[in-house]
Structure formats: C-alpha cells, structure tokens
Write a structure and sequence with these properties.
The protein is mainly α and 495 residues long. It is built from 21 helices and eleven strands. It is found in: Cytoplasm.
C-alpha cells in the first residue's frame, strides 16, 4: 500500500445519493485514477442505525456504476482492509476509544440527557448563546475526570450508560494545510469535547472516520466543505494516536441559482433534481452529468468544456478546484445533455428509444425510428423527446398547440390547399425533401407571400406543433398519403 494514492468515498446510507455526494465521489475517482495504481475505495458509514434507510446502499452503488465510477474496493469487492461497512467494524472502534481514555486524551461521561439539558439551559441564562461540553464545563459534569476512581469503576461494572468524549485542550491552535484552501487554523476553545463512542457502543462519525482512514491506508481525504469545521478534531485524534494524517481537501459548496446553499427545498422550488436517482429516472445521459459535475467547482484552466471521463482523469487536479461556491446551472446541464445525445449514432440510441416507445404504447419499426432519431437529434434535450416530441411521426395530431394556432391566418387554409394541389401530382419516388421545398417556393411565389405564412401552418398541420425537426425531411418521412390527410384535416378544423 506504500506510496500509492488511496482515496475513499464514504457516504451514509440515510437516503438516496444526493447530487453533491456524487460530485464528491467524482472528484475522488478522478484524483485516484489520475495517479498510477491509484485506488478508489467505497466505504459505507452506517454507524447511525436510527437514520439507516433500506435500499440506500444499493442506490449509492447503482449511482456510481451508472456514471461509470467503478470502485476498486468496497462492499462485495474486498481489498484486504475490510469490512467496508462501519456497522461491521464496531469492535475495532471500541478498542481505539479505550486507548485514548488510557492515554488521558478521552474520558467516560455518565451525564443523562436531562443533566446535559440543564447545563445548556444554565449557560444560556448566564449569557452564553452557544453552550457546549468543553474544557470549562466538563469540570462541573458527571464524568471520569470529576468522579472518584472507585465510583467510575463501580458505574462501569454496573453497566451504567456512558459515552466516551474526546478531551480537547483548552488553549491550543490547530493548524493544517488544506489542498484547496492552503493553511487553515482553528482555536481549540471553539471546539466541544466530541462524543467518540455512543452509549450503544457505536462510534460517532468522527472516531470511525479517523480510525478507518488510517487502517485503510487513505492518503487523501477529499470531502465537502461542511466537514471543514470537524477537521481540527480529526487532526487532534491523529496527533493523539501518533498517526500521520492524510492530506485533506475540502470542496466548495454547491450553490443554488437564487443564492445560498443548494438545499433540498431550494432545489425543489427551482426545478433541479436533487438525487442521482432522479437523473437516472429522467433518463439523462450519464456522460453529461459527469461532465457537468466535474466543472461544478473545477476547471482545466482553458476554454474547453466537453470532456470524456478518461480526459477528465488526465486533466483533473486539486489545485484547480475553486475555493468559492459553485452555482448549479441547470440550463448548462441540459446543454451538456443535448451535446452527448447529438454525439451518439442512431444505432446506439435505438435500443433505449425503443424501450421508451414501448412505455408509451408504441412499437416502432427499427429503420423508421432510426430515421426519426437522425432527423430530431438537433432538436431534443433528452432521449424521451424522440418519442414525446416525435409522437406525431406515429399518430395524426389530435389537437393543435395553442401558441402555434395563433399564427394561423385567414389565408392559411388557401395556401395549404395550393400546396396540396402541387404535391398531389408527385409520384412516391419524387416525394422527397428537395422537391417538397421547391413546391413551397412555387406556392409562395404564386401567392406573393414570404416563407412564414405557408411554413408555419404547414408545420402545425402535419405535427400539431409550432416547432420541431426540419420540415421538408419530416414531410418526406411521413409520406404523401399521411401528409395530405393531415393538411385536409387541419383546414377543416382551423378554417
């Protein structure tokens, strides 16, 4: 394990994988794969059993696989430093918590929830707005620092409830170098005596995190900015255990377009899908999401915007990650999605489109559908659009889009009838886009109008919409009989 880069993505299975979590995973993955022999570890931090959600771990793994981030070690992929679920490592943490107690750097605390509450209320009344269990208050509480040793031994023997707390020094400056932010320093007087081992014998995030990162040989901890305030406690523990801490990098927050952190509530109000599962369900291109997330807080330092996962691996470095928050621009994500759809041949898109068509009760012919895909590629934002926006390739429009109908003028019916008369004379082999366009030119010349007065009603008549793929190739694909039938119907309905 010596010398090689080892990173970990360590989510809690407390719900579906958040888009911010996916970006953290991506930066870890890109960093690991950018180094020879780099290892990407997945660790499931499930020590908080009260918040455990059934199926969440599966969702995390599916999300990583869908985006092309296969982990090297993790649940189901042993690598010699497992198990990779913290709930299966419980005994390990107890041993290390006890070690800190023996060294005098942690202690047993027997306070009941009521006693903790009283302490907070008391301090609030005396003018302390954010009371905490720390170097000052610990001396008036019920713990192994204030109780006689024989009483502590008796309480432990009797099985009284206790937690183990970290003994944070009263006046110390804790400094470390962050790979993104440079040197960061914290005053220990601002920290509380963090609980390391809970009364149910489970570790808190802080203890489990430090112990696991050390035992799993993690060289770089790349995580969200929200963990920056916990870093000094972790640095203290590394010091107490006499271990070399990993390099740390705290990623910028993902911001909402309206300002502030992109919370679940804000995302919902702004129409931004918040969980990776939403992007899978909405059939986004995984490459688009990866490319977009990579640029959400990082850039390669030039104007390039489109890169495959392999290219991102080559380009990525922590020194190019920004310190400031990155705004989630949903329009940009759609732009990426459109790009990756256009980039894929109809051959590759066809199986997925066929499946979506099936969900909409259609059974398209393969050749016909591939022609539709080629025709619509420049117009779609998501793969479903081939079927939803392209529905008129299968069924005559039942109704006409309101906005488009407003452009239907008094002479629209007359112009369309003139066009029908022209194309009615064509044989099947002459019914092709180029000829169809020439016939449009003949009609507008004879009636002395521009393209608009004929093109718009024609589009509405054949598709029911005021937008869509190139018109004359569309008419060619629909065929003569269908086109004429639809025009007649529109004239009848719209006058």
């Amino acid at each position: 394990m010596e010398g090689s880069v080892r990173v970990r993505f360590a989510p809690s299975p407390t719900g579906l994988l958040h888009i911010g979590g996916l970006r953290t995973a991506l930066y870890n993955y890109l960093f690991a794969k950018g180094h020879e022999d780099g290892v990407f570890v997945l660790r499931i931090e499930d020590t908080d059993q009260t918040r455990y959600v059934e199926g969440a771990e599966e969702d995390i793994i599916n999300s990583l696989v869908w985006t092309g981030m296969d982990f090297d070690e993790g649940p189901g992929k042993p690598g010699g430093v497992g198990p990779y679920r913290q709930s299966e490592r419980k005994d390990i943490y107890e041993e290390y918590a006890e070690q800190l107690v023996e060294q005098g750097q942690a202690y047993y605390a027997f306070d009941t929830p009521e006693e903790l509450n009283d302490m907070r209320e008391r301090l609030k009344k005396s003018g302390n707005p954010s009371p905490k269990y720390d170097a000052i208050t610990r001396m008036s509480m019920k713990n192994s620092l204030t109780l006689p040793q024989e009483e502590v031994d008796r309480m432990l023997k009797d099985g009284d409830d206790y937690v183990i707390r970290l003994k944070v020094p009263r006046r110390e400056t804790i400094r470390f170098e962050d790979e993104i932010r440079g040197f960061v320093s914290f005053e220990s007087k601002g920290l509380d005596d963090q609980v390391l081992l809970k009364s149910d014998g489970m570790p808190t995030y802080h203890l489990a995190n430090v112990v696991d990162d050390h035992l799993m040989g993690i060289t770089h901890v790349i995580r969200g900015e929200e963990w920056l305030s916990s870093a000094p406690k972790h640095i203290l523990m590394y010091e107490y255990f006499n271990w070399e801490p990993p390099r740390m990098a705290h990623l910028p927050l993902i911001m909402s377009p309206s300002g502030g952190k992109l919370s679940k509530r804000k995302a919902e109000s702004e129409g931004i899908p918040i969980n990776t599962r939403d992007y899978i369900d909405q059939k986004f291109e995984p490459e688009a999401l990866v490319n977009f997330l990579a640029y959400l807080g990082w850039s390669p330092g030039d104007d390039s915007e489109v890169h495959t996962m392999d290219e991102l691996v080559d380009l990525f470095s922590l020194d190019r990650v920004s310190k400031g928050g990155a705004v989630f621009d949903y329009k940009k994500l759609i732009w990426y999605n459109e790009h990756y759809l256009r980039d894929k041949p109809a051959e590759k898109l066809w199986p997925r489109v066929r499946e979506i068509a099936g969900e909409h009760g259609l059974e398209p012919d393969e050749e016909y559908m591939k022609q539709i895909i080629e025709l619509m590629k420049d117009r779609v934002s998501k793969i479903e659009d081939f079927v939803t926006m392209g529905r008129f390739f299968f069924d005559d429009p039942e109704e006409y889009e309101e906005k488009a109908v407003k452009k239907w003028k008094d002479n629209s019916g007359e112009l369309l009838q003139a066009y029908v008369d022209k194309i009615d004379e064509l044989d099947e082999e002459d019914f092709e886009a180029k000829t169809l366009k020439n016939k449009i030119k003949e009609v507008i010349k004879a009636h002395d109008v521009g393209f608009g007065p004929l093109m718009m009603p024609l589009r509405v008549a054949v598709s029911g919409m005021g937008y869509g793929p190139d018109l004359t190739p569309t008419i060619e694909l629909l065929g003569k009989e269908t086109t004429i039938r639809r025009i007649h119907r529109a004239i009848e309905k719209l006058g």
